[in-house]
# Entry
Amino acid sequence: MFLLCQRNDFLHKKSSYLVNNYDIITTETLDLEAMLQNKYFSKKIIDISYNRFLSYLKYKCEERGTVFHQVDKYYPSSKICSNCGTKKKTLPLSQRTYSCDCGNVIDRDLNAAINLAVQGMKTYLINYIEDRTTSIAW
# Structure
């Protein structure tokens, strides 16, 4: 019981920190059911309580007015070069460094995070422009 309280406290503190310090938050929509089938990931996924963290993040974003966006699980965030936009056909999970012909060599997870951030900004700007154009009376 104590560990559950510690985990919930940690998740609340991290989600509050993010919502209080950032105006736009973007996450991946992960297929957790499929990931639980993998014997290497299943215990780690259960341990991190990803779904609970996302639910805390969502409701806190709504309360504070922070933009929360989830990128589709099929968006190839790891396979796209964050520098030039080139998409690799394959990128095995064992390859932890992303390298592109344009010269970009970067940690695979950092590359994916940059791509997710860009997607979140694009979505925000598209929605902002659409809201502004519909509110203008001609």
